[in-house]
Amino acid sequence: MEFSCMDFKVGKCQGQKLVDGETMPLVLQPPVADKADINSLLLALKTNREWFEQLIIKNSAVLLRGFDVKNAQEFNDIVEAFGWDDIRYVGPAPRTHVYGRVWTANEGPLSEFIYYHHEMVLITQSPKTLLLYCEVPPPEGGETPFVPSFRVTERMLEEFPEAVEEMDAKGLQYSFTALSKNDTSSMRGRGWEDAFGTSDRAEAERRAKALGMDLEWQPNGAVKTVLGPRALTRVFEGRKGRRMWFNTVVGMHGKELSSARMADGTEIPEKVVKRCEEIIEEESIEFKWEKGDVLFFDNMALLHGRRPSLPPRRVLVATCK
User: Fold this and answer.
1) Phi and psi dihedrals of 101, rounded to 5?
2) Cβ neighbours of 79 (radius 10 Å)
């Protein structure tokens, strides 16, 4: 699809890359200075909604830059402009509701690196689109690196074809242990009561089952969630038949509170996990946040994370079906 829209002009940002003929992230700016206000942007998005949605699929990451997006309310207006259905976040990251469909991103310590992942990859229904808004850019660090998922699959197949096909054939099983209450000192510190929206264990089990997970209650009030089998790779419609590395093996394998193995109990070789971690980092793309940036991710196509950062940093998020 050739770029053609009078309501936006193509810009550039440091760090963007050309991947299989696609610019990531594609930067869109106001066509003229007097079209940088939020009302002009909302009109442009509503007028060109179908075109913009196709652009997200084509380029995987689209960055709106130079528009005067002032706060969470205006970001929420952008989210609402597309008419996409909301999807409630389920996962270990501590988050706080801000406004409308807008939440804080992971509130874990800024000093820690949040590892690459597809949003809610372990849940039976993941968001199609992830939107991020930079309200306060960090003075240093704090980038949101992302990775074209199909490139990870391609390179892993080149180096470990038998291991990849075995994991894909058997499927994966994950486990994660969550405390009862939130612990914001940890980037995975969301308690199960907050995650499931209830303090009733029976109700938590019912809600967990609907999301495709089993619960094992621990003596200290924590709960171990068990998920599986889950796919190693997936192919999604409209994305050139690309085989996405749609899993969180590296992020959960051999950690203190989590594990990842094949669904039949077979352990994943450490050298495979280690090399995958290196490949993911080698394929990463990142840019420096600027105030007012709005970033659209195709969650089916991209892994993303967070670099360590000096405070303050405030990036807000919305997830859409």
Assistant:
1) -100, 15
2) 22
Span 132-150, average pLDDT: 98
Residue 104 in this model has a pLDDT that exceeds 80:
yes
Q: In this model, does residue 1 exceed pLDDT 50?
A: no
Instruction: Please report, as a single letter, which amino acid is at residue 239.
Output: R
> Would you tell me the crossing angle of helices 149-159 and 161-170 to the nearest 10 degrees?
120
Average pLDDT, the chain: 95
Sort strands 61-64 and 26-29 into parallel, antiparallel or unpaired: parallel
Residue 160: Cβ-neighbour burial (10 angstroms; 0-12, 13-18, 19+)? middle
Considering only CA atoms, which of 77, 82, 84, 68 is closest in space to residue 33? Answer: 68
Report helix, strand and coil shares of the chain as percent, to nearest 5: 25, 25, 45
> In this predicted structure, what is the pLDDT of residue 3?
63
- Is 22 in contact with 295 (CB distance < 8 Å)? no
Report the distance separating Cα 140 and Cα 255, nearest Å.
28
